[in-house]
Amino acid sequence: MTKVFPxxxxxxxxxxxxxxxxxxxxxxxxAILTVWKKSLLLNCNGFTVFDCKGNLVFRVDNxxxxxxxxxxxxxxxxxxxxxxxxxxxxxxxxxxVYDGETAVNPxxxxxxxxxxxxxxxxxxxxxxxxxxxxxxxxxGNITCSSSSTTGKNLLYQIEGSYTQRCCAVLNKKRRRVAExxxxxxxGGVTFGLDVFRLVVQPEIDAPLAMALVxxxxxxxxxxxxxxx
Length: 228
Fold this sequence. Notes:
CATH topology: Porin
Number of helices: 3
């Protein structure tokens, strides 16, 4: 049976000890994570994430009968790292990201990009202070272009195709700080869409990068029909 956790390709990209916090090994190297779109618990939807040595680093376990507008990203021991909540009473697909299990002072605001003329851009990530203001981000005036990255609160934008597991998180300087890539086994056999790689550069925390993966799945993946 083909192993889900990282193969020789990821080990070659990051042969030094892995960092579950997404800061590489302290020498500027990327952290290579394997994301499995499956919960380790029965009767749950979610994700299981391994580092380059096959160690469990993140998990998401959503009970099928639970609250569909809230998702908790946990570490391997079950400690909540980030809580993702759908923004209420808002037009469009808007989400707030909080530290731990708190429900105040969101750290990030994530908005799905809806523009039939620009299908390359998937979503915008802004600082949490932007979540309750009537500004360009909330009104949908920000678009994926070089000028949009000059917005005061805009931190990242996500481009590519999540359904093809080929997309990137770009910072204000258009540098790729995280990427979602298809994963192949040592023999070259693809795992399909439920197992893929998440490459995290030192410029972004791994929990946030994984939270963005979860949100992309809510917006564009099979989880979309389960989140309402």
